[in-house]
Amino acid sequence: MSKAKILLVDDEVTFANNMSRLLAKRGYEVSVVHGGEDALRKVENEEYDVVILDLKMPGMDGLDTLKVLKKRKPFIEVIILTGHGSVDSAVDGMHLGAFDYVTKPVYVEDLNEKIRQAHQRKMMQESKGADGTDVRSHTRFVDR
Amino acid sequence: MIPDSKDSSVKLDSTGRVPKGVYSTLYLRFVALTLLCSIVPLILVGWGIYRYYSRFGYSRMVEDFQTQVESHRKIVELFLKERVSTLRILSQSHSVEHLSRKENLDAIFEISQREGSYFTDLGVLNDRGRHLSYVGPYDLMGNDYSGTFWFKEVMEKGVYISDMFLGFRKVPHFIIVVARTEGDRKWLLRATIYNEFLSALFGNVRIGQTGEVFLLNREGIYQTTPRLGGLLMGQASLPMDLFREESGVQVLGGSALGEEDASPRLVVAYSWMKEPPWMLVVRQDYAEAFRDVNHANLASLLFLFLSALAILVVSLITTGHMIKVIRKRDLEADQLNKQLYQACKLASVGELASGVAHEINNPLAIILTEAQVVRDLEEDTPNLDPEFKSQLDESLDQVETQVQRCNLITQNLLRFSRRTKSLIEMVDLNKFLQEVVDLMHKKAQTSGIRFSRNFEEGLPPLQSDPSQLQQVFLNLINNAIDAHDGKPYGTVRISTRTDEKGKGVEIRVADTGSGIARENLDKIFDPFFTTKPVGKGTGLGLSISYGIIQRLGGHISVESELGKGTEFILFLPFRLPESVREGLKGAGTGGGANE
């Protein structure tokens, strides 16, 4: 399995850069954007496997970004980043179709594992989607 | 909302208590005000009434005396008028020749006696002052009255009534003389009347104990026998120059009677007659005459005084009571304020805590990534100096540890400030507590603690949120175990029973640990208060538990003795109160998930 292509969406520059470095060390191809709109533009132009999305961002809210993302690119798996206070919104995110969530401060190994699982599911879904079955199953909670 | 300090009527001193003097000052002020508003009008009204009725009573008495003296005067005048009239009739209806004969005079006299004329004698005199005839007990035939005052008077005026005099026989009497002009001759008819008949008119008149009626002549000589003190024909001790008017009422003080004391002594009502010029006197001791009026006055003064006294007493009592009520209210308000203040404090701490926690998460995350970046670098760098490497590892471990620690703190902070949405279920408390105990089994064992359970059989289930309850009891048991720090063994006893009123469950968590010092007991539920060494406790556990129990409609309290142990006493109702049920709606397990 080739390593996933990751889009990291977070408005905290230092954090994003560090995290990008750490993930690159673990073999992922990582792009970084700092806002929701930038993220949406990026996924139009390039193929990504997993998006790591921070919920608390200025401009376009994390959850809104998630909604649009799931609509446009249903196969992309999203992992939500959240601070402790927003566990509730993380659960909302799950309902909206996110794969999982991690809380800040993030342990890279945790994130690594989750990315692996998300990528795995994506690949399974894509293969299923090719023969037309079960595409809807993981998008059960998506608002249409 | 914190109540405005301007609203309180009592200023608190530096220790938050009401300064001692305030209530007594308030008391005195109120009493003074009440007295002023009630006693002053009372005095004004009372004094007004007193004066009015005083004067009223006084003038009534005077009128009464006036009336009496007038009526007695009329009696005397009538009496005298009748006598004169009788004499006149006699003199007009008989000729002087007829009456000059003794036997005729005798006959007339006898008739007049029979008909009640009061005459003692009768005498006919000629115009030279000599008796022509006489009937009576005296021997007057030879007397010559031409030089007397009365002779001249009657010759001139046609009638004369004399003052009392003793005469030859020393019997007090007076005479009435009428004149008749018969043709060219004038002759006189004279009669004597004993004083008794006059005195009898009012000799028995009693006016109280000291009141009497008598007649005085111009010189103040008694013309009738005074009932009390004084002699007929004696000098009355009344200063005649005071009685100048035709009639009147005089109050004589001691000074008028020649005594030293000037206070009023006598009431004298007088009335002058014309013919003869006698003064009728009604006299009574002032004290007796005005006794009733004076009593009434005294009574009203006494009443006034008693009223004022009653007002004073009542106002002292009611003001005292009112101050007590005010004091109590102030105390209650004070209590409420304190509670409110505490609640506000907690709320703002909660908000602050929540804000801080959120803000800290990002820097923490960055710190962690930096550490991880360095770790990665370390992995990639061969041939590192072993000392350097080991120090590096140690330091990186520390960074991660401390980040984790901060994480725990922020977790607790957020849990503390969160308005949790609870999940309400029916909880079998005994079973529930057993499960919690089982959870803590391992930790307890390590610390040498054993559990002792005293659960009431058949305890009915209660309406509550199990995950929040779990948080509370885990916290309490944790604390209980930690309290045995330094002791090799101990017991944590958990008991449940239905509370006295049957409304809920009473749960006790007692330990044999180090106990809590008395001065810390009322701070134990404060946020951030901990007696644990730095790094061991956040001081939030109990305040979170307190909040949870309150929100679930119960309450929690603590008893402790240093060195002996601590006991937490909780109450949880069987059914959640309406207000609580309203506030706890919706699904979601709330914040206790991440331990």
Provide the fold topology.
The complex is a heterodimer of chains A (144) and B (595).
Chain A: E1 5-9, H1 13-25, E2 29-33, H2 36-45, E3 50-54, H3 62-72, E4 77-82, H4 87-95, E5 100-103, H5 108-130
Parallel strand pairs in A: 1-2, 1-3, 3-4, 4-5
Helix pairs in contact in A: 2-3
Chain B: H1 21-93, H2 96-100, H3 102-114, E1 119-125, E2 131-135, H4 149-157, E3 159-161, E4 173-182, E5 185-194, H5 195-202, E6 212-216, E7 247-253, E8 264-272, E9 279-285, H6 286-289, H7 291-380, H8 386-417, E10 425-427, H9 429-439, H10 441-447, E11 449-455, E12 462-464, H11 466-482, E13 490-498, E14 504-511, H12 518-521, H13 541-551, E15 555-561, E16 565-573, H14 578-583
Parallel strand pairs in B: 11-13
Antiparallel strand pairs in B: 1-2, 1-5, 3-4, 4-5, 6-9, 7-8, 8-9, 10-12, 13-14, 14-16, 15-16
Helix pairs in contact in B: 1-7, 7-8, 8-13, 9-11, 11-13
Low-confidence stretches of chain A: none
CATH fold field value of the domain at 420-584 in chain B: Heat Shock Protein 90
Order of helices and strands of chain A: EHEHEHEHEH
Average of pLDDT of chain B: 84
Main interface pair?
Answer: A-B, 19 and 24 residues
Count of DSSP-assigned helices of chain A: 5
Spans of chain B with pLDDT under 50 lasting ≥5 residues? 1-8, 586-595
Q: What is the tally of beta strands of chain A?
A: 5
In this structure, how is the largest beta sheet of chain A organized?
Answer: 5 strands, parallel
Overall geometry of chain B comes to rod-shaped
The chain-level structural class of chain A is alpha/beta
Helix percentage range of chain B: 40-55%
Strand content of chain B: 15-25%
How are strands sequenced across the largest beta sheet of chain A?
A: 2-1-3-4-5
* CATH top level label of the domain at 420-584 in chain B: Alpha Beta
Radius of gyration of chain A: 14 Å
